[in-house]
Design a protein that fits this description.
The chain is an alpha+beta fold and 117 residues long. It has one domain: Arc Repressor Mutant, subunit A, CATH 1.10.10. It contains five helices and three strands; from the N terminus they run ααβαββαα. Strands 1-3-2 form a three-stranded antiparallel beta sheet, with helices on one face. Strand 2 and strand 3 form a beta hairpin. The longest helix is centred in the N-terminal third of the chain and has 15 residues.
Length: 117
Amino acid sequence: MAVMTREILIKALEKTYGRKGMAHGDVEDLCDFVLSFFGYDDYVLDNTLSAPERDIFYNLEEFGFLEPHREEVNIFRGKTWRVNQWVYKKSNIYKAANAPVVEEEPPNIYDEIFKEM
């Protein structure tokens, strides 16, 4: 797949975080934050993240935009070196970005009142 663009990521974040009440400016800041780590790559080394930054990545994992990936490499002297990374789940990001916007109508409280009578 192609490089993750700002436009695609903003659309995906807007349709998830934005629908939960995050302001558009904050969605753009979140997008820029994520892209500042990934750049043109599809992965970020976990050890480059601070604890608060890692919390944001865990939150993005809950929405299905990122996933942790662990790789074990045998190095000289037979020791195992573990490399933890965060990887884009591009299919989920593109799916969220291209999902149609469905406007939910607020429930009519009067219908609920009359149903109970």
